[in-house]
Design goal:
By secondary structure, the protein is an alpha/beta fold. The chain is built from 19 helices and 14 strands. The strands form 5 sheets. The chain has a 5-stranded parallel beta sheet with strand order 5-8-11-4-12. A 3-stranded parallel beta sheet has the order 1-2-3, sandwiched between helices. Helix 3 (45-57) links the parallel strand 1 and strand 2 (63-67). Bound molecules: adenosine-5'-triphosphate (ATP) and magnesium ion.
Length: 431
């Protein structure tokens, strides 16, 4: 009567079974429930059981419990099982109405954000990353992805810079049983030896001078999901034993702690160097390599799958044209020729960037050869006198990459650059 007077629609049920059935089949904004139903019971057990069942059915439905026998313990237990609030009998009308109104409002906000999240998940699954290819050179790649994605096998992805290794890692996760769990990516190439362990395994407060708080490591973050170790070839030799142990047992200790944590993460790794060479040179532990490469997927460079160039170029043109609201639709034949003739030392990523540049430069509906900015590399050697310092640097880096078959470590060495300095430049020039 009280709630009807407040213009709420009220539906009542007189037993736990009837209540559950009603909630299961109809939409409600809130449940107000007693804890005792059968005559002469005061334990609250029936109500607590019903509460657990409702909470398991719909965790967003707010439940307010009321009982004449409210002891603090019973109220605490009800809250622990998912009740949002409680009222003791005899109740005060005003207070009861205020609680109900509050809880309905809070739940509306929560339900709305959960619905948005679900919608976002759907959207994401529409705009899912996809591997664009029709080259026969990529058939084994696609077959392997389909075959090993659902398993928990460790996968090592190899290939030159920009061939799509990170994309393949994501695809393996999306098509695995772990897809609802996190995909955590770590760029090992960007980790200095000093922070390697704390980044991967976490640390506890006070473990070292800068450790002001506890920090969870990437392995723990990936628990239940997939951990992607990018540029695995760069794990410092001194850290490889520790990493191997964690991969073997799933057990780790945060830096500064002696407590062992068990983590269940599937490990996918990627590298653009030849790890067998690294093993031979004594820079990479063979047992670690064997642990990582249960399955190996090799991505051929773009120049070995020329069929994919026009396909990818069309895709990137469409994406960037849409993003920058330009009416660009096609390529003039000379532009397409230039795309196909170029050697693409930076592979798919370089193609992507070339098309972004073209979209920004071009007017009208057609991309022309000069918009692609490939002149310097496709024709005769460029005239250094006419280039800016940055252009020269980018040019030399491309050359070095091409000379060393896309191997970034060797190219860096040849140019006299440290690994990290080289990677910074690759990023800067979009290579
Ligand atoms: N076959 C493909 N279809 C569509 N997009 C692709 C394909 N291959 C690569 N890409 C895109 O090209 C870019 C570069 O790919 P990705 O980052 O996966 O390369 P990578 O091999 O991981 O490079 P790096 O060695 O530099 O880490 C990304 O934006 C990726 O989405
Ligand atoms: Mg990558």
């Amino acid at each position: 009567m009280l709630f009807k007077g407040e213009h709420y629609g009220v539906h009542s049920a007189t037993s736990p079974a009837a209540a559950f059935e009603t909630i299961r089949t109809q939409y409600f904004d809130l449940v107000l429930m007693d804890l005792n139903y059968a005559r002469d019971t005061t334990s609250g057990k029936e109500g607590l059981d019903l509460l657990s069942r409702i909470a398991a059915l719909d965790s967003t439905l707010p439940i307010v419990v009321m009982t004449a026998w409210a002891s603090i313990e019973l109220a605490v237990e009800a809250m622990r099982r998912g009740a949002r609030d409680f009222v003791t009998k005899p109740w005060e009308n005003e207070r009861l109405i205020a609680i109900v109104r509050n809880q309905i409002e809070l739940a509306r906000a929560l339900r709305k954000s959960q619905r948005l999240e679900a919608e976002n998940r759907l959207l994401r699954s529409h705009g899912q990353p996809t591997l664009i290819t029709e080259s026969p050179a990529m058939t084994p790649v696609i077959e392997l992805i389909e075959r090993v994605a659902p398993s928990d096998a460790n996968v090592l992805i190899t290939g030159e810079n920009g061939t799509g290794k990170s994309l393949v890692a994501q695809l393996l996760h999306i098509h695995s049983r772990r897809s609802e769990k996190p995909f955590v990516s770590v760029n090992i190439g960007g980790l200095s030896e000093g922070v390697f362990e704390s980044e991967l395994f976490g640390h506890v407060k006070g473990a070292f001078t800068d450790a002001k708080t506890d920090r969870i490591g990437r392995f723990e973050l990936a628990d239940g999901g997939t951990l992607f170790l990018d540029e695995i070839g760069n794990v410092p030799l001194s850290k490889q034993t520790r990493l191997l142990r964690v991969l073997e047992t799933g057990d780790l200790e945060r830096v500064g702690s002696s407590k062992t944590v068990h983590v269940d993460a599937r490990v996918i790794s990627a590298t653009n160097s030849n790890l067998n060479d690294e093993v031979a040179a004594g820079r990479f532990r063979q047992d670690l390599l064997f642990r990582l490469n249960t399955i190996q997927i090799h991505l051929p460079p773009l120049r070995e799958r020329p069929e994919d160039i026009p396909l990818l170029a069309a895709e990137f043109l469409e994406r960037h044209a849409e993003q920058y609201r330009k009416p660009l639709k096609t390529f003039e034949p000379a532009a397409l020729e230039a795309l196909k003739k170029y050697s693409w030392p930076g592979n798919v990523r370089e193609l992507d960037h070339a098309l972004l540049r073209a979209v920004l430069m071009a007017e009208g509906t057609m991309v022309r050869r000069e918009h692609l900015g490939l002149g310097a590399q496709t024709g005769a050697s460029p005239r250094i006198e006419e280039m800016s310092l940055e252009e020269v640097e980018a040019y030399l880096i491309r050359k070095a990459l091409a000379r060393h078959g896309g191997n970034a470590l060797k190219a860096a060495e040849a140019l006299g650059l440290s690994r990290s300095a080289f990677y910074r430049r690759l990023e800067k020039y979009g290579l």
